[in-house]
Each structure stands twice: as C-alpha cells, then as structure tokens.
User: Fold this.
Amino acid sequence: MGETNRLLLMGNEAVARAAVDAGVILGSGYPGTPATEILEEFARLGGKAQWAPNEKVALEVGIGVAYAGARMLVAMKHVGVNVAADPLFTAAYTGVTGALVLVSADDPDMHSSQNEQDNRNYSRAAGIPTLEPADAQESYDMFLKAVEISERWGTPVMLRMTTRVCHSKGLVQQNGKIASPQKPHFVHDIPARLMVPGYARPAHRKLRKKLVEIKDWNEASGPNQVFEGSSDLGIITSSVSYLHAREAAPDASICKIGMCYPFPDNFVRNFAKKVKRCVVIEEGDPYLVEYCRYSGIAVEGKDEMYRHGELNVGRVQRILAGDTSTEPVYPPGNPPKLCSDCPHRTISGIMADQQLIVAGDIGCYTLGGLPPLEAMDSCVCMGASIGVGLGLRHALPPEEAKKVVSVIGDSTFVHAGITGLVDMAYNPPPTGHVVIIVDNGTTAMTGLQEHPGTGRTLTHKATRKLSFENLAKAIGLDKVHVIDPVANKEEFDKLLKESLESEELVLIIARRLCSLGAPKLEAYERATGRQGSA
Ligand SMILES: Cc1ncc(C[n+]2csc(CCOP(=O)(O)OP(=O)(O)O)c2C)c(N)n1
Assistant:
C-alpha cells in the first residue's frame, strides 16, 4: 500500500482493496451480479471471504462480527438486500461496535436481474447512512469513509453501487489512511442489542438522534462536492449520473451528493440558491428530487420515462432539454441461451413435452422458459418456485393441479428453497406436489460459485457438504429420487410422469454437473483429495 500506488481497477476490485487496507476481518455475501467479484477479489488479495447460504445469513454474520468490535464487509446484489432486510432494519436500532459496511450493488436497466429496485429507498426506510460512489476511486475512498462513519456513530453503513460503478475500470490511488481496527472483544450491553419492545423503543429514539448528528456531519464535512460553473444551470446529481452530467452539460454548476442519506438539504439548498435553473439528474427512482422538494428546494426532475434503465450522456441531454419524445431503440443483443449440452436443456425439453405447469426459479435453468422450449411459467424471486407451485396446487382443480411442478437450482435451493420444502411437507396440497432440484453442482448463472451443497468453500477448499437427500428425509419426505437426467433421459421422463400421477410429495434431485463448468468443478473436487467425483 504505497502513496503513489495507482492501479487500474473495477469498482468492485477497488472495494475489495479498500476492505483489505481497512483491516476488514471477514467478507461475507451471496453471489449476484454485479456484486460477485467483490468477495472473490477480497479473497484473492488475502482477505478472509466466504459465501453464506443467503444474504440474510451473510448480514447476520456481519452483525456478529461488528458486535465483536471488528470490521466487516457484506456484499450482495440489490435484491439480496430484500432477503437481508429483516436483520438490516433492526441492526440500525442495535447499532454496532466495530464497522459494518453493506455493499448493495444495484442494477439499473436489469442487465442481469429480475427488477431494478433502487436501494437508496432502504437507507431512508431502515435509517442506514448511505454513500454513493461514482467511480472506482470513489468506491475505494468511500468504503474507507463508510468504515469510519460506521465506527464513529456505531451504525451499519450502506455503500450503494450500481452496475456501471461496479464494473467500470478507473485508476485508483490507494491512500489507505484509516485508523487501525480495534482488537475484537465482546462488551455486554443487553439493552442495546436485545431488541424486545422495552429496549427497542429507546433504541429507535437513539437511532433517530444519531441520524440527526450524522446529517449535521454530512452537511459540514460529508463527501459532497460543488463544482462551480455557469449560474444559468445547476445540476444536483450522484453516483455515475454525475459523470454523465459533466459530459452532457460541461458548463453547468454541479452539486454532487456523495452521501445521499441522511440527506444534506442545507448543502443542496445553498447550491440551488446560486443558480437560475436547477435540475436533478439521477438514475432510478426520484430519490434526490423528492428529498429536495420535501426540503422546499425548487428543482426540476426527470420525466417518468427516464426512471427506467440506465442514464447516459444522451439521455441526460434529453432530460435537460425536457425531451420526452420516443427514444431511439437500439438493436437487441443476442439473448442469453442455455449451452448446447447443458443438462437443464434436457429437463426443460421433457417438461415442455409433458406440457406441465412449471413454477420456476432463478438460475441458468430460467432460460428454459424462453423460446423455443418455453418450459417455465413463472420466476419471481429466489426460492419462490416451491411456494408458488404449492399455491397453484392448492387452488387449481385436481386434473390441472397434477400438472404443476416446481423447478429450482441447487444454489437457489440452499438460498431460499429449504423452507418451501418444509411447507410442502407441513401443508401438503390435496394432489401432492413434485419438486425438481436441478443440481448442476455449482452456482452457474453468476459464474460457478461454490455453495454449501458443493461441499467446497469460496476458495474451493473442502468443507462439510449439505446432502439434499438427507435434508429432504429429515424434513419428512420419503419419496426422494436422485437421477442423472441426461444419462438416464427416458427414466427421468418416466419418473416425472409417475411422480405427478402419484399425488404424493416427491422430490427429484436431477444431478448432473454443469457442462460448461465440469472441467473446473472436477479439478476443484480432485484438489480436495476427497473420494468420489464432484
Ligand atoms: C436474492 C438474490 N440473490 C442473488 C441473486 C443472483 N442469482 C441469480 S440466480 C442465482 C443462483 C443460480 O444458481 P443455481 O440455483 O445453482 O442455478 P444454475 O445457474 O447453476 O443453474 C443467483 C445467485 C438473485 N437473483 N437474487
């Protein structure tokens, strides 16, 4: 870590470097584009990083680390924060002793996501201070700033990134100027951390007081900047929109918000007073614009059409010109498709032939829902296949209900499918139900990450392996089949038909390694020195 050390890094890599420089003792999270590289890079740099079964567990581990007085990085994609929202809201009340930085990687335009939620709304809803870096350098700097804020005020802090910031490269100077971490030690403070109503009521009051103090700090010394330009046009902006705005209106005065919550309204008001026309340029929801208006600052916002998708220089120019004409449509890229020898392809083909009603889930296998196979009827969020399938079974007339099958990937099953299976055993629909775990031995969609079912850690070292078949038996299911759907295609076809006809609760584990990842996965497994194949 030298003063003159400048590296060309992606935003995600810059966060990982900052975490190392800050002495973060653990990084946890669950894979999800555009966040995945953060923990992988942190591990590559020598940090201790681990994949949690899901984002909720990752954040809970983070809370524990920060209760112990240490520094923690938790990284996830934007929808992961939905999964982690329960501990997040209450961790804001309990506060932390060390540092807890939650990186939320949002995905405007849904390059690889099922929605484009704007997680700045979580900052406000949960009361979590939030920083918004615009590029790789700021990703580095603001991670360190987040650690400082977290420790100074004893609060979790969110670093809200977006796909462009996560994946764009820029030169990063590693300043690394941050106080050394404390030595982990547990100090009992039951009223602060035991959130029963009697302690939670004062904890909420304490949080609101803390947020007022943080707001005052943000007004006076937060990472917000004014770039003086023409007084005819002022732009209030944040994140990567700042870069687009500079290019779209090089003469404008710019107020760049680095810490969007608690909102520094006085800082913004002082800026707005000095310009004739003031426009808010932001991607996603009208977050800054609403804060401005709520604070009595007269600003123009963007038309609703610009709430969708990412901004770019051209779109910012259009917003500034008040142009709401139809936007040019760019030719679509090649849609993603299943690899030619992907085992999911065989399974989707069989389900299409059997004309099933398929409650699906998220992973490579979701692509089986696109033409020509069209063998998936729904995909809501991770783990939803089982609950949605059960709901369909409960409501549909028996002959139709018997056609319903739930399909879920192995990583997704561990993440959020286990409780669905528990519900199936606990509240069985009248016609039974069939769940297929399409177990390709990896988290393929996000780039072949490990999970508890692979029995290997984030760095591919041997660890305990979760057995889906034993788990299903413990849940109370006795019809559990394990089958290779490619080597035994006809048997799989027959098993599926018979299971649906049987009106029983059946779990089929369709196990066959991801064809694209097989050489790597087999090598990882061989390196563990364990018997048997991956
Ligand atoms: C809450 C949440 N976290 C993470 C993701 C990103 N993500 C999409 S699918 C998936 C897992 C895919 O793995 P698996 O279920 O094993 O299916 P495969 O792609 O291997 O077929 C992940 C991590 C997400 N969409 N939602």
Observations:
- The chain has three domains: 6-221, 225-320, 343-528.
- The two ends are 39 Å apart (CA to CA).
